[in-house]
Write a structure and sequence with these properties.
Number of helices: 6
Number of strands: 0
Helix content: over 70%
Shape: elongated
Strand content: under 5%
Order of helices and strands: HHHHHH
Amino acid sequence: MDLRQYAATQAEAVPVPPAPPPPLLAREQAQEAQDALREAEVYKRYQEAIRTSETARTAITKGLQAGLNPYRLLLTAVDCIGKLTSDTVFSSSAKDTITLLYGEVMGDPQALEIELEDVETRLEHLRAYQGTTEERMRVQSIIRQHENRAQELKNRIG
């Protein structure tokens, strides 16, 4: 056996390592980067949802122990559920239903208190408005309507 034949047998006996995988294309790398950003955003929202639910649970527990308005506690729970499910309409819909059904229709004073709080909050904003003279005159009419509604609610609450 000459040197060439010996070298040929040695080359066959030594395993050749597999070729490294080809480098990722730029598009694949960009897609991986976008996926990583999306995953980070999902995780961030998940952490925020956990904080929201913990805050709501604490508020509800303290509210129950303090004997707070059960409709207000229900709205806290509904708001939390809406945030956890990313449903922006759920909370406002529940609030509207409570004030209409239990407040207006059934005359429950605790449900009427929720609407009264909303009316008084709007009154504060209306009274603080600093527009033109003509706009303030229109706002004065709206303020009177809100004051009448607030008084009506106070009378119904007792």
